[in-house]
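dumping this here so i dont lose it
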């Protein structure tokens, strides 16, 4: 059982990604508990203020430390957390080994930034790990958090129907996945490779391995050199 607490100022953005498909199934099966907390409920005063102008007078707003501190402190009083993760474009790049590692944790907090980001003291004092989903900037940490959660939860044994299917995905063995096809075998003359229709498991396995290797050499040669 893995428990993930996501902190956000726009929790609505997380509703759909967390309530369908594999993530939903994992929650229903009791493999993962995922809670979304609205930082605004911990905001200051009647207006529930959570953001303010940056010191030094730059454009844009910054998420204040106090509401975030309050919610993290409350959660930590209830249980221990293995990681407090901040989603940020300058964090460690999310990849399959990181997802594998995090899928073995018990409790984690994922903090989504917004606007210009969070008061840097949050990162200096409360966060234990910073994760990026790529070298580009999105408006909020919710989509990155949804990507991270999905990448983790689908790895929990039992989350995916066919246990083997997560293991045969790209990157699990430093190789890209081979191509997949389904019926019809011939669509307007575009044919599925004959070997897949041969019924010969040995030939099919050999074909898949060869395709994996060739696609990796062509599309992600750095995986073979152990650079990624
Ligand atoms: N001013 C910041 C970007 C803020 S974007 C900077 O230049 O680094 C607003 C929020 O979206 C961030 O706080 C972060 O939580 C989230 N975010 C945006 N792009 C992201 C990415 N590539 N990976 C992870 N989180 C991202």
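and the seq i came up w/
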């Amino acid at each position: 059982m893995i428990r993930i607490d996501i902190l956000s100022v726009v929790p609505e953005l997380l509703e759909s990604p967390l309530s369908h498909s594999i993530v939903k199934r994992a929650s229903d099966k009791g493999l993962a508990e995922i809670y979304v907390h609205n930082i605004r409920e911990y905001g200051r005063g009647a207006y529930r203020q959570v953001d303010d102008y940056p010191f030094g007078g730059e454009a844009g707003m910054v998420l204040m430390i106090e509401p975030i501190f309050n919610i993290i402190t409350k959660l930590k009083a209830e249980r221990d957390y293995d990681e407090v993760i901040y989603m940020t474009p300058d964090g460690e790049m999310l990849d399959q080994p990181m997802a594998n590692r995090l899928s073995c944790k018990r409790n984690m907090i994922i903090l989504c930034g917004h606007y210009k980001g969070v008061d840097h003291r949050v990162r200096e004092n409360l966060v234990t790990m910073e994760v990026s989903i790529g070298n580009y900037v999105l408006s909020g940490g919710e989509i990155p958090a949804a990507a991270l959660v999905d990448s983790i939860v689908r790895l929990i044994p039992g989350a995916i129907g066919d246990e083997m299917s997560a293991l045969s995905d790209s990157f699990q063995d430093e190789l890209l996945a081979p191509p997949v096809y389904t019926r019809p075998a011939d669509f307007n003359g575009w044919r599925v490779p004959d070997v897949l229709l041969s019924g010969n498991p040995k030939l099919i396995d050999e074909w898949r391995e060869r395709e994996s290797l060739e696609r990796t050499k062509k599309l992600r040669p750095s995986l073979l050199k152990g650079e990624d």
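The first strand starts at residue 2 and ends at 8.
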